[in-house]
Sequence to fold (210 residues):
Amino acid sequence: MLLRLRVSLPDRPGVLGQVARAFGVMGADILQVTVLERDSGRAVDDFTVSWSGVLSAEELRERVSVVPGTKVEAAWRTREVPGANPDYDLLGHVAADPGRALPTLVDAVPDLVSADWAVAVSAVDGALVHGSWQAPETVSWSDLVLIRPSSVTLDGPVHVLSVPLPPMAGDGLHLVVARSQGPAFHRVELDRMVRLMELVEVLVRSGVKA
Fold:
């Protein structure tokens, strides 16, 4: 299985190597490390690992946490395939068929950020326009402000990321991405979605003009 672990660790030489060795001792193969932040002598990194499942994700989390000063904030399953350049693949599909940009985007985004599902909803009344596989048919967005890019945690808990969608199937739509496993969306993940939407808008507008 593929697991993603969010790890807070001291930002000093040698610590990352100790964490990597801890994974190796347990037979977990590190496929990708994503740096989320570096601040005040600490770092937060996301590790994507290939894992045999001999131990549970919680046991893996506990054993990595024995590295001095290290804390595993979350461990959850992911469908994200490291090194596959999924952002570029998605943009390629949008460019090839701008008319299907909305469903293409909504269906693909969950795998980009190790989430469970995504929906396109109206910022006016919360009406569902399109949902990915596993997306609920009805969701209450009363605690979510569909105005600007944001990430919040709703009851459940359900971690939610929301960004405005470029005009594709009407104005005033938002992309809402959710995960019930793992940590809240980091600002790096939110920024990634914002930049992706900007590129999608350029491709859609270019496709319409063509």
